[in-house]
Design goal:
The chain has 519 residues and is mostly helical. The chain has helices at residues 2-19, 23-48, 63-67, 69-84, 87-114, 120-140, 143-166, 173-195, 204-226, 235-261, 265-273, 277-305, 315-318, 320-335, 337-360, 366-374, 388-401, 423-442, 454-474, 484-500, 505-518. GO terms for molecular function: dolichol kinase activity.
Length: 519
């Protein structure tokens, strides 16, 4: 299974660089080869319990697929912005690619360093890949960009040491690279933009995303340290939790956002949300869907309490939420992508805050949330945090957040790139859902080395093709320009990756589909 997963990732790397071949292509290929060898060292460390931190079990390290996401994303972003003539974001794409390569290289060096005896051949490969990457960065980045990349690496190192210690068994090494690398990059961007504020420069919704993500992470770190010294389950601690959340929100996060957008954040948000009648209709519709999702949770828990034996939600039951998320995102993508962008940021902040309430058992809802959500746990929720619903939201939202709007004439990219914002809907909302439902109910032929079925994968590919056809009918901004073969290849490769990967597919699949469509 690991070999097939690696082969699929190599295929996507080569396909992307067949379209976008430049000096970073050699770096990406070298990084992929050394990550392929190093991930076996990580797997061995995980099996022997010598990986320093406690990582999620029942999965391989996932180093290769995770290592290639940021570099490939940066390369295709650079190419799109170069074609559009937007130099600032072309340089930004180069910084993203360089940062991703350096973070992946750091994780590889760490694995090689703690492996005993020292693997000589892997050390040589890592050294060659590192030399190629550093040489290319030396001739591609300015001094300020090199400093920016090193800042992200420094933040990543400290953030990894803190969060991997506090949250054992929540991540594999590859998932830690993706999640903590992304958070480190966002934090560095927020610091950089806060120190160089120019009035009128930058989109307020981008600043809103940066401040919201960093704000909820800092909030969690603050309360984690605080509740080391006091019991979080008492009413006094709960009152203190809610009071300090309000103080940090109104006293730190709001002024920080005000400095960036130069207007009252609450007034700006209310004006933005209710700016048009279409937005009002969408908000009412989304409220109804949110209530439906809550209804599913309460109904399934009532069903559990009425049964004598231990009841756990089935795969098909968990996929109800995928259908609800698709019904949420598709109208937003068609009618108002900026509103969807902001609503997804708000939803992410609420999800993470509710997870804090559940994790710390904050009264009055902490214990209730623990009871309600325990029904929907699967083998990937082996740590103290429940992250699968947050990963689902991220998988649907990242293609919307990472879409290079400044480099897209008339708000859309040409050819297959027009489907980039739909990557989460196609890969997770349609593909993963259909594969799970059909695979678990009708599947008989299993892919070698996995529990996934041939029937599930084929129906997933077919369903995504139908979804693309429906998008063409209902979204007039999408014009594929006869790039159907590339779309079919992209959807097929990502669906096969879903069958073979043991990483969090809600997070990994949309990013790879976005990379392929942007290329």
């Amino acid at each position: 299974a690991v070999l097939v997963e690696s082969l699929l990732v190599f295929t996507m790397v080569l396909l992307v660089h067949a379209v976008v071949w430049d000096r970073f292509s050699w770096c990406a290929v070298a990084l992929a080869i050394q990550a392929f060898y190093v991930q076996f060292k990580w797997d061995r460390l995980l099996q022997l319990g010598g990986a320093v931190f406690q990582f999620r079990g029942a999965a391989n390290s996932g180093l290769l697929p995770a290592s290639m996401v940021m570099p490939l994303l940066g390369v295709v972003m650079k190419e799109r912005c170069r074609a559009a003539g937007i130099v600032y974001f072309e340089r930004f794409g180069i910084v993203v690619a360089s940062t991703g390569m350096l973070l992946a290289l750091f994780l590889s060096v760490l694995a090689v360093g703690i492996t005993k005896p020292v693997p000589t051949n892997t050390c040589i490969l890592t050294g060659i890949a590192g030399s190629v990457i550093i040489y290319t960065m030396k001739h591609s980045l300015t001094v300020s960009e090199v400093i920016e990349v090193l800042e992200v690496l420094l933040i990543f190192v400290y953030l990894s040491m803190i969060l991997l210690y506090l949250l054992p068994r929540c991540f594999t090494p590859g998932e830690a690279l993706l999640v903590l690398g992304g958070v480190s990059f966002v934090l560095n961007q927020l610091i950089k933009r806060s120190l160089n504020v120019i009035e009128g420069r930058g989109d307020p919704i981008d600043f809103f995303l940066l401040v919201a993500v960093v704000g909820v992470i800092l909030l969690g770190l603050f309360f984690t340290v605080l509740f080391v010294f006091m019991d979080s389950c008492t009413w006094i601690s709960s009152m203190f939790f809610h009071m300090m959340t309000a103080v940090l929100g109104l006293g730190v996060i709001m002024p920080w956002l005000y400095r960036l957008i130069h207007r009252n954040p609450l007034f700006w948000l209310l004006q933005f949300l209710f700016q048009t009648q279409t937005r009002l209709y969408l908000l009412v519709y989304w409220t109804f869907l949110a209530a439906s999702a809550c209804g599913v949770v309460f109904y399934q828990n009532a069903k559990r309490s009425s049964e004598s034996k231990k009841h756990q939600a089935s795969t098909i039951t968990r996929k109800y939420f995928h259908f609800i998320v698709v019904a949420t995102y598709v109208p937003g993508l068609i009618y108002d992508r900026q509103l969807l962008y902001v609503a997804a940021v708000l939803c992410l902040a609420v999800f993470i805050f509710l997870e804090y309430v559940r994790y710390f058992r904050i009264k009055p809802f902490g214990q209730t949330l623990r009871h309600l959500l325990s029904l929907f746990l699967d083998e990937r929720d082996s740590g103290p945090l429940i992250l699968t619903h947050i990963y689902l939201l991220l998988g649907m939202s990242l293609p919307v957040w990472l879409f290079p709007r400044s480099c897209a004439p008339k708000g859309t990219l040409p050819g297959a790139g027009a489907l980039v914002p739909y990557s989460g809907v196609l890969a997770v909302g349609v593909g993963d859902t259909i594969a799970s439902v059909f695979g678990s109910t009708m599947g008989e032929i299993k892919w070698p080395g996995t529990k996934k079925t041939f029937e599930g994968t084929m129906t997933a590919i077919f369903a995504q093709i139908i979804a693309v056809a429906l998008i063409l009918i209902f979204d007039s901004s999408v014009n594929l320009n006869s790039s159907y073969a590339w779309i079919l290849a992209s959807v097929s490769l990502v669906s096969l990756l879903e069958a073979y990967t043991t990483q969090i597919d809600n997070l990994l699949l949309p990013l790879y589909l976005q990379i392929m469509l942007m290329a």
